[in-house]
UniProtKB/TrEMBL annotation:
Listed InterPro entries: Calycin (IPR012674), Fatty_acid-bd (IPR000463), ILBP (IPR031259)
CDD domains according to UniProt: FABP (cd00742)
Recorded superkingdom: Eukaryota
Coiled-coil zones: none
GO molecular function, one term: lipid binding
Source species: Capitella teleta
Annotated Gene3D superfamilies: 2.40.128.20
Official protein name in the record: Lipocalin/cytosolic fatty-acid binding domain-containing protein
Homology family: Belongs to the calycin superfamily. Fatty-acid binding protein (FABP) family.
Lineage: Eukaryota, Metazoa, Spiralia, Lophotrochozoa, Annelida
Length: 167
């Protein structure tokens, strides 16, 4: 490869790098989960919290611009926000408030999150794969050992535009 070719490749902006990837932006309403209770049990969530989670219908509001994704999870009176850059590791707390290191990357048209405990013996490693079916169905596949859960979210029609990441 010539020096000129290498220079052109290295100067590709993130907007071009991610132009062919799906954009997850939108407001996503939970419509169904398969095997959620078993998955949460495998992660160590107590019986009461599992029953609450199984009966809930959370909303994910996602702002996706190039390699930056901001997710606001809301469920009744609680909400949680995460902002990350694809292909960079970040730290967050899991469902049981245990510290985790998360790596997010593209695998074809799926966004993959690898969650690893940062303290030995405190938490469980898991994989979350997110992908679109059509333009209005977002699917999460959560995997922990041999336990798999699928969660389905329907895109809500926008009545107002979503704010950008900077608003």
């Amino acid at each position: 490869m010539s020096t000129k070719d290498e220079e052109l490749i290295s100067n590709v902006g993130s907007e071009e790098k991610y132009a062919h990837k799906p954009n997850f932006s939108g407001v996503w309403q939970h419509v169904r989960s398969d095997n959620l209770d078993a998955f949460l049990k495998a992660t160590g969530v107590n019986w009461f919290m599992r029953k609450v989670a199984v009966r809930s219908d959370p909303i994910y509001t996602i702002f996706h611009e190039d390699e930056v994704i901001r997710i606001i999870f809301s469920n009744g009176g609680t909400s949680r926000e995460t902002v990350f850059v694809i292909d960079e590791e970040y730290d967050e707390m899991d469902w049981n408030d245990r510290p985790m290191r998360v790596k997010v990357y593209w695998d074809e048209d799926s966004l993959v999150e690898l969650h690893e405990p940062t303290e030995w013996g405190n938490g469980t490693a898991l994989r979350v794969t997110k992908f679109l079916r059509g333009f209005d169905l977002l699917i999460f596949v959560l995997e922990l050992g041999d336990v798999t859960c699928r969660r389905y979210f329907r895109k809500q029609l926008a009545t107002n535009r979503l704010p950008s990441l900077n608003e």
